[in-house]
From TrEMBL:
Protein name (Swiss-Prot/TrEMBL): DUF3455 domain-containing protein
Keywords: Signal
Taxonomy of the source species: Bacteria, Pseudomonadati, Pseudomonadota, Gammaproteobacteria, Pseudomonadales
First and last residue of the signal peptide: 1-26
InterPro entries in the cross-refs: DUF3455
Pfam annotation, one family: DUF3455
Length: 178
């Protein structure tokens, strides 16, 4: 093989490695509880940017106490180049592609991320509705988190019913069986 071909193969391998590095890197650094089981492959990577609504409510298990309660998310899902490929909303947690296909899911696990950010999350997807980008998705991971935690504003009995919206960003990685 000549030097040009060897250089071409090396460059191709380097580019492929760089494109897969974010997934491989993220998968290696995640806590075990939120890793996708063996036998699955990444089918779609998105960046979700949006907001989460919280409401001040009575604590379910503590009479007379209040807390910020997660009401639901609303985010735009974009590919790595910034092009919108779908939306995320709830409840129930729903990821919908631009082609109309969508999935909901059941949370399998969460694990702490860094302070001030939502936790990592692993969701087992229900069968997709419609055919398209979400067809065959079996798991969804939430990683690379920025913000989204309950407001720092007080939540007292006088604040019950008050809603606060916080910004967040997260990568949603969609997996399917190999």
């Amino acid at each position: 093989m000549n030097n040009k071909k060897l250089l071409g193969l090396a460059c191709t391998s380097l580019i492929a490695g760089c494109l897969l590095a974010p997934v491989a890197q993220a998968a290696m650094e995640l806590p075990e509880s939120v890793k996708v089981p063996d036998g699955h492959k990444v089918t779609l990577e998105t960046v979700g940017k949006g907001e989460i609504t919280y409401e001040c409510r009575d604590k379910a298990d503590a009479a007379g106490q209040t807390e910020w309660f997660f009401v639901g998310p609303k985010a735009v899902l974009s590919d790595r180049s910034g092009k919108q490929v779908g939306t995320y909303f709830g409840p129930p947690a729903t990821w919908q592609a631009q082609d109309g296909s969508k999935v909901t899911g059941t949370q399998v696990a969460v694990a702490p991320s860094s302070a001030g950010n939502l936790p990592y999350q692993l969701v087992k997807a229900n069968p997709a509705e419609g055919s398209g980008a979400m067809s065959g998705v079996t798991y969804i991971q939430r990683v690379a988190l920025k913000g989204g935690v309950a407001p720092a504003a007080p939540c007292t009995s006088a604040d019950k019913g008050k809603r606060e919206v916080v910004s967040y960003q997260a990568d949603y990685i969609f997996w399917a069986a190999k």
